[in-house]
Fold this sequence. Notes:
The complex is a heterodimer. Chain A has strands spanning 4-7, 10-14, 19-25, 29-37, 43-48, 52-56, 59-64, 69-74, 83-91, 101-102, 106-111. By secondary structure, chain A is mainly β. Chain B is mainly β. Helix content of chain B is 0%, strand content 54%. Chain B has no helices and eleven strands. The radius of gyration of chain B is 13 Å and the shape is globular. Chain B starts with a strand and ends with a strand. Classes of the chains: A mainly beta, B mainly beta. The A-B interface holds A 30-31, 33, 35, 41-43, 45, 48, 86, 88, 90, 95-102, 104-105 and B 31, 33, 35, 42-45, 48, 50, 55-56, 58, 88, 90, 92, 94, 96-103, 105-106, 108.
Amino acid sequence: GIQVEQSPPDLILQEGANSTLRCNFSDSVNNLQWFHQNPWGQLINLFYIPSGTKQNGRLSATTVATERYSLLYISSSQTTDSGVYFCAVVDAGGTSYGKLTFGQGTILTVHP
Amino acid sequence: DSGVTQTPKHLITATGQRVTLRCSPRSGDLSVYWYQQSLDQGLQFLIQYYNGEERAKGNILERFSAQQFPDLHSELNLSSLELGDSALYFCASSVNPRGAGTFGSGTRLTVV
């Protein structure tokens, strides 16, 4: 099946710093989503971005589908940005339907 | 509130027991997905239903089963529970069978 690799596995920042998280995937995708899992375990959908660039406040994401990677940018980080960031994709193969394959996540810690 | 309701939020049970997790999808969504998040396996797709019928199956154990009812709510049944089944179980829903899912807040299962 499709493989999803995220880097870095861990990231520690001071409040106010910027960061870039990367997601590489091994095959064509119909869907790519970025999630933030907060310390209470909730999975919050940040972006639905199978291709192109989107921005939402201090967060933005870019997916280059032809090169099989996506980037999540966090600017002016805040302590509330701490948590785990997941990239998840839907394989473009015919039997995948809406099934998401998740990467292992990037653990982000933002210190005040 | 994502609109996807999962109950219960927490569940503690003993090895060998059977539990049922419940998911009510967002209004209008016909597709329901179940995912398991464990420390060793990460976030994994278990099974998908669309309008009452099974559409896709992932790494779901034979001790686990699921169904989607006519009112579109879904239940995940876990039997002969083992310590390794302790995990966060997420439900997601979408309008169509290939759609991006909206996640519920999860059920945290602890097997002791």
